[in-house]
Amino acid sequence: MKKYIRFIIVLVATALVMGACDKDWLDPAPENQLVTSDSTFADPANATRFVNACYANLLTWEQSAFSWMGVASITSDDADKGSDPGDLGADKDQMDAITYTPTTISVTEVWKGNFQGVSNCNQALANVPKFDIPQDLKNRLMAEAKFLRAYYYFNLVRTYGAVPVLDQVIDADNPADINKANTRVPVEEVYAFIEQNLNEAIAVLPVSYPAPELGRATKGAAIALLAKVSMYQKKWQQAFDLTNQIINYEVGNYGLVPDYATIWREVGENSIEALFEIQARAGIPIAAVQQYCSPQGIRGGKFSFVGNNGRDTSAFTGWGFNTPSLDLFNSYEPGDLRRKATIMSIGDTLFDNVIIDTAANPRYNYKAYVSKYEESWTGNDDRTNKNVRLLRMGEIYLINAEAANELGNTAKAIASLNAVRNRAGLGDTQAAGHEELRQAIWRERRFELAMEYDRFYDLVRQGRAGQVLRAHGKNFVDGKNELFPIPQSEIYASGGKLTQNPGY
Amino acid sequence: MKSKLLLLLMLIAGFTSAWAQQKTVTGTVTDNADGTTLPGVNVLIQGTFTGTVTDVNGFYTIQAAPDDVLEFSFIGYEKQEQLVGSQSVINVALSPVTTFLDEVIVVGYGQLLKSQVVGAITKVDGGKIAREPVLTAAQALQGKSAGVQVISTGKPGDQPQVRVRGITSVTADGNPIYVVDGMITTDITNINNSDIQSMEVLKDAASQAIYGSRAGNGVILITTKSGKAGKMKVNFDSYVGFRQMTNKVKMADANLYANYTNEARAYDGQNPLFDPDTLKYNTDWFDEVSRSGLMNNYNLSISGGSDKITYYFSAGYFVDNGIIEGNDYSRYVFRLANDFKPADFIKLGYNLNINVSKNDNKPNVFDDAYRMAPTAPVQYPNGDWGYLQALSVANPVAQLHYTNDIFKQQRLLGNVYAELKPVDGLTLRSSFNFDRYNNDGTNYLPEYFIWSGQKNDISDLTISTGKGFYWIFDNNVNYTKTFALRHQINVTAGYSAEQDKYSSLYGNVKDVPDQSNLWYIGQGDLTTATSGSSGNLYTRAAVYGRATYTFSSRYTLSGSLRRDGSSNFPVNEKWGTFWSAGATWIVTQESFMENQTFFDEIKLRGSYGKIGQDNIRNLGVLTGVTILSNYYAFGGQSGTPQQAITFDQIKDAQATWEPTTGYDIGLEFLILNRRLRGDIGYYNKLSNNYVSITLPSAVGDADRTVFSQAADVRNKGVEIALNWNDKIADDFTYFVGGNITFNNNNVESVDGNLQLRGGSLGNGEIVTYTVEGEPIGSFWVYQTEGIYRTQEEIDATPHFTGTKPGDLIYADVNGDGTLSELDRVFAGSYQPKFYYGISAGINWKQLDFSVDCYGNGGNKVYNGKKGLRFGNDNIEEERAANRWSPDNPNGTEPRASNSIPKPSTYFVESGSFFRINNVTLGYTLPLTKWKMNSLRFYVTAQNPVIFTNYSGFTPELPGSNTSSGIELNIYPVTSAYLFGINVQF
After folding, report:
1. Same domain for B149 and B223
2. B70 lies in which domain range?
3. Residue A172 is nearest to which of B7, B699, B898, comparing CB atoms?
4. Bridge partners of B665?
5. Contact map slice: A 116-155 vs B, CB within 8 A
6. Closest chain B C-alpha to A89 CA, distance in angstroms
7. Which H helix or E strand runs over A467?
8. Does residue B730 sit within a domain?
9. Is residue B723 one of the residues assigned to a domain?
10. Which domain-ending residue is among B47, B73, B94?
11. Are the Cβ atoms of B632 and A26 closer than 8 angstroms?
12. Is residue B504 less than 8 Å (CB to CB) from chain A?
């Protein structure tokens, strides 16, 4: 027996050791990651999720936060850098002085955010048809994606001018696609692409959605965006017709809310004034814009409460950037209710009975204020409940007025202009004649849309950016600063194929 | 079926060993040189595990058959073999040798004699490692091996960065893998240095190829101690001492800072912040955040065994309180190792290393201490924390006070194995190696308000756990045989399968009370609770083999081959083949060398091979659907946010192993009466690397990068190691040794339009650029030529807008009249031109003294923190005191300024240094009394002194391959002073 023990032990050992070899050993299913497989396209709910990604890009830091603020707001005469003098916010001093360069962070992030949005829309348009869902739903989902793609391109063409136009998903291994991604298309063609997208969307989008889908793009939203795009291209008849459709209740029950001050507060979310808002909700899961409000929050503030006799109160605070300028503050007409609703100054009592005792800067953007007492507050400064109003009736009326004026329809122009003025507590306009009315409408736009990230682009399209901003002390160079530079990192990534804007 | 039958037959054939009659054999083993008896000599029946050990009188008894050959072996002596034959008494005299070419070297999956090793391997004895009072064996390795550059870190509980023969990869981790008793790991903070028997550094492809797939950056083998048959040995080690900052940079005091800041603000048209005459406080922030950290270590090991069972047990407790207040690290390590020989052809064993560690983390506040204003107090008399509103820097003492970040880890590393010797010369080994760890962390931030720039509105608790299980199942066969007395072959073949799985889970809730017994999720506001989990799984499979043929103990040829598959890579790209070939020639064995006495032993070696790396993670899944982290809140306040998905990750469909191919030649020698040993080598290797290519944003890849094999890096160099051992008298021995490595790192080709810029300073500026013809991560900055002193000087030369007198002059290198990126120059790199280690020691009667040094030469560092300004920060005293100003027009430093300077050669400094790593003086008590074998007391200073021209905190600046050598996050080098005791029974 002893002889064989050796034998047996060795045999058993050898057998154990020649263990089974698993053919799929090197192909484990990846942990925590959905893979492209039938499972993704088998679930019809995923079709909607692809389109949700087009909206979700609006919540990202690059798209809607500090950099966008730098490019669209701090550059204008409505806002200053803010915060403490030594605190540059990486590059906000450059945005304020208009000394930015192709390597400036804000310029780079705005490009990235918007193109990521375009890509998400292209992915949605490519993948929604693969699902087994009713054709109506498919059409509607694709129309939403087109609306958002048009919005992202509107931002890109206003900011950078000629940009690559991507109407489908880019295949990184296909040189023709890469070439497309590196070829700048003239401004007129970009606008034509935007209009085409919007027209296709308008044909399909519904007038309204059931309550759980509130926030999706409506026909009214697409018409509003097309009207604004038309205004930028000086297509006055088109702008006039489109805005009339909205004002005349043809595409939904839109109108001016009576109290201007409530527009940007939580009570004013998704009101009849709103055509399209970036929906935000504080809490879990994360569904709010990353740091829209906190960079504009009151810096170094000390507060008290009405009736508390000077005892220390806490209120929403932040980094203190994008402060309303003294020029803006002083330019309002006497009696204009919008000043108090747009700008909060030291010593003011806010709508929730908080008094600002001291702060690092004299004025802050009231439209970015969140009330801890009277609005939804989870303690997270960085993801607040505040919706970002992108298109609203106040602007629609003013587009209508400007288009009417340019077409010679003075009566309609004055009527629309007055609708906005009266809501703001002002009397009818005294302007008469084409030129005076134009200037009055342009002035009205400034106060109606103050601190809503519209001023810089407005000045550029009106052709008077250089004159106004240089008077304000900024280094605006005509022929150069109407457009922002193409980010240097993008030029490198393209291998030098993307060309730079003149002057940079 | 047929193959199994064959195997059976082979086994049966092997068993026809003689089962003839056994008898008792006895004898005495003596030392040939002086005739003294030798206890503890291993007497083994060749080809089996049966053996015994000579007793205290050198006497042994063993049962053996006449055909058996007895092997007598003992460290420090030449092995001898004796055929039993008809003898019953066999006395043996062993000759002592300084083991050199007969030294046993552990190589991948086996052992070879030094004379047979064709690759470049440096062996470091465990005793030298244990002597350094440091946490990891990697840190103790600094300066002890040519070709190994160790970049230390001051943080308790951290492992240093190690580079073996230069950096090969651009994007992947540059650290080598550690193989601890067969288990592959990258983290050796759980190994007690006293448990290490030896470390072997495998430096070239020939030695690494058998580990093929993970070996791209080098392999360090660690063999731990195991029990030996014989009397039980007890060893106790302990040391205690403290650690402190070696040197600190002098910052401006309150008065100088106030004047500097007011001046800087005046240039920008701002009001002065301070009145220098009425300053109340002058805080030295470095003093406030640092302390002398206590260090102590206790170690006990017990080992021994009989001829059937051996055992090794050790327990250790290590405490390292870092120099930042509150930053504590402690670790318990237990080690158990046993092996059993139930029969003479079978051996079973296991190794288990149990590690429990706790890390009380504190943020690295040295950055804030560097920038914080000295005019602000730590705390005002009323208890409020100090701050300066115009300066966006957190009060570092407050930061430490409010941080509660505890990390605990329990880790089990070990293996279970079985070895069979069915036939003479054949060993079958099967082992299951595993590494299992559990982490848990608690991070609590209380509610506090210092000012609106440093506050926390609502308390925040995060609890996280992680666990991982990495196992390797390895089976191999080893066959050694000598034919016709002159031909020796040694063949190893095997296969292994691995799986590495880890997962983590966290929960976060807000509004939890500030009491450590209440730090649980349930104690917070559950409406704010979030949680998440993630995990990853990698698998590998490999087949490997090595064959070594030695002719006449003089010529050796060796080759190895390994085929590896990894789940990391896409379909069709999963497998890679790695190989090597080499030869050695023992010149002193030749007949023409017989009559010379100068060379005692000489070995020439040469090899060539290819190895790979799969450190680029997660290329296996080509395109996965991404679930966006943002949901979208349709439906207003009463709606439910909806999930969003898209495709935003592009992967390179051809991604596969990063190969390195290279050759190595060397000369190893022992001369001058066996007193001087040396090793001179030359190596040259080329790696084809992955780099992340930046894609245009329009492509829609969320992180804008895709990995593609697009850069080649070559490392070539010379290593020289020399060691001299001698004695002046019988009780006076000394040694001097050193090694130096010259390494040239060069990027050979970079594909097309890759912009390998790196070294971001965090303010939009980058300082490194990796291009052909320069080392990886070379500094690429503007050239400065002094400072402007007058406005006329400024107007006369190209300058940036806003330049004022007192600013640095930047050279217009390309002469085009403007300053742009084209004027940047290459200003050196962090890769040293050479690095070296020196050690020396004396043993005189009962005293022992040793010194270990390490140094780098020819490298540059970038003093990044000096140029990082966010406005109104503190400034280094030298720069502030010597600044140019209208009152001080001869100043040598630039003017007071709050603006961010461009990256320039002003910040590039020499990174060369020479440091005394360890000075130890010990005294061993004579052994007459008590039962101890030895009792030794010693004092040690670790890093007492560093000689460097660098003005910053430390010239050792670990970082990623393209961003090394930039001092941004300061962690000063620390010195430790310790007293220790060592007892052996």
Report:
1. yes
2. 19-94
3. B699
4. B606, B682
5. 116, 118-120, 122-124, 127
6. 9
7. helix A465-471
8. no
9. no
10. B94
11. no
12. no
B119 and B23 belong to one structural domain: no
CB atoms within 10 A of CB B675: 15
Chain A (394-453) residues lying within 8 Å, Cβ to Cβ, of chain B? none
Region of residue B88 (left: phi > 0; alpha: psi -120 to 50; beta: else) = alpha
Q: Determine contact, residues A256/A393, Cβ cutoff 8 Å.
A: yes
- DSSP letters of B160-197? PEEEESS---SSS--PPEEEETTEEES--TTS-GGGEE
Split into its structural domains, chain B has a count of 2
CA dihedral B301, B305, B308, B311 (to 10 degrees): -10
Residue B99 has pLDDT above 60, yes or no: no
B116 and B206 assigned to the same domain: yes
B531–chain A Cβ distance below 8 A for any pair: no
Provide the CATH number for the domain around residue B175. Answer: 2.170.130.10
pLDDT in tens, B171-210: 667 788 999 988 888 889 988 888 899 999 988 888 887 7
Residue B98: what pLDDT? 54
Give me the interface pTM, i.e. the ipTM: 0.91
Distance between B854 CA and the closest CA of chain A, angstroms: 40
Q: Are residues B70 and B139 in the same domain?
A: no
Chain A CB within 8 Å of residue B408 CB:
no
* CATH code of the domain containing B44: 2.60.40.1120
Note the pLDDT tens digit of each residue in B391-450: 878 899 999 999 999 999 999 999 999 999 888 889 999 999 999 999 999 999 999 988
B154 within domain boundaries: yes
Residues A410/B541, Cβ–Cβ less than 8 Å: no
Give the CA distances from residue B66 to residues A2, A10, B42, B87, B93, in Å, rounded to whole numbers and listed in that order.
Answer: 21, 26, 19, 8, 21
Q: B700, A56: Cβ pair inside 8 Å?
A: no
Strand partners, B613: B658
Q: Which residues of A touch B530 (CB under 8 A)?
A: 284-285
> In terms of domains, do B133 and B207 share one?
yes
Test the B interface: residue of A2, A16, A32 with most B CBs within 10 Å: A32
My answer on whether B48 and B141 are in the same domain is no
B33 and B140 assigned to the same domain? no
Q: Which contiguous run of DSSP H or E holds residue B500? A: strand B487-510
Say which of A53, A86, A178 has its CB closest to residue B872: A86
B379-389 per-position pLDDT tens digit: 998 888 988 88
Of B428, B648, B870, the CB nearest to A13: B428
10-residue mean pLDDT profile of chain A (504 residues): values are: 59 55 73 67 90 96 94 95 83 91 91 95 94 94 96 96 92 82 94 96 95 94 96 96 95 94 94 95 90 92 78 82 95 94 94 91 95 87 93 96 95 94 93 92 96 95 94 93 92 86 91
A92 to chain B, minimum CA–CA distance in Å? 12
Cα B112 off chain centre by: 25
pLDDT of residue B488: 86
Longest Cα–Cα distance of chain A, Å, equals 121
Task: Using a CB–CB cutoff of 8 Å, tell me whether A55 touches chain B.
Answer: yes
Q: Is residue B129 part of a domain?
A: yes
* Helices (runs of H) and strands (runs of E) counted in chain B: 10, 50
The residue of B387, B625, B654 whose CB has the most chain A CBs within 10 angstroms, and thus the best one to mutate to test that interface, is B625
Cα B735 to Cα B466: distance, rounded to the nearest angstrom? 47
pLDDT in tens, B549-604: 988 778 889 999 989 888 877 777 778 888 889 999 988 777 777 777 778 888 89
pTM of the model: 0.74
**A56–B475: do the CB atoms touch at under 8 Å?**
no
Do B160 and B226 fall within a single domain?
Answer: yes
- CB-based contact, B764 to chain A, within 8 Å: yes
Domain endpoint, select from B53, B77, B94: B94
